[in-house]
Specification:
The protein contains nine helices and no strands.
Length: 194
């Protein structure tokens, strides 16, 4: 791991431990074992460092969703299982990490305020991966959408479900997130019945 990535990993822990407002560049340099000059060589200030932490965290969740997709496909998993694994990596892992810090609301608010473009970029990237998977399943004849349901509509429903589960109060226990994603994706794919 290069010095910048090590600093980002350490900074994420510092922000989780102290919150955005209380964390300082001195806290990060001390925790990372680098001089303040070394830290400022990579990041001009705390907002820039925080944005980089959020960018990396979101990019990592999308990268892990690709790994989850590939692993599920290698096992011969069906579409629902693959989508559930991808959504759990994209949304569940981030939520599980946030649930570990008492500063989750502050971190979430600061991330949305300061790093929205980076978050949106990774959201688009994830949506593109789901689109590619879904279109591939349709082309292979393993998935057929009902009339008037577009791929985009289906994927918007999936991500809306994931976001809704993420906002549940009280929060779900972290170990139940993937199960809940799968349950609601299954319900969406098969309907509630009559």
């Amino acid at each position: 791991m290069n010095a910048r990535d090590q600093i980002l990993l350490t900074a994420q822990k510092v922000f989780n431990d102290f919150g955005y407002r209380r964390a300082s560049m001195a806290d990060v340099s001390r925790a990372a074992g680098v001089s303040r000059q070394g830290l400022y060589h990579h990041f001009r200030n705390k907002p820039e460092l925080f944005i980089a932490v959020i960018e990396k965290a979101h990019a990592d969740t999308v990268n892990r969703s690709v790994q989850a997709r590939d692993a599920a496909q290698a096992r011969g998993a069906d579409y629902e299982t693959i989508v559930t694994a991808m959504i759990d990596e994209r949304f569940g892992r981030m939520l599980r990490d946030l649930q570990k810090t008492p500063h989750r609301v502050e971190i979430f608010e600061e991330a949305m305020k300061r790093a929205a473009p980076a978050i949106l970029e990774q959201t688009r990237r994830f949506h593109s991966l789901l689109t590619e998977l879904t279109q591939s399943e349709i082309a292979a004849g393993r998935l057929k959408l009902v009339k008037d349901l577009s791929v985009d509509d289906l994927l918007t429903a999936f991500t809306t479900i994931a976001r809704g589960i993420s906002l549940m109060q009280p929060p779900l226990p972290p170990h139940r997130l993937k199960e809940e994603y799968g349950r609601y994706i299954h319900l969406l794919m098969h309907g509630a019945g009559t």
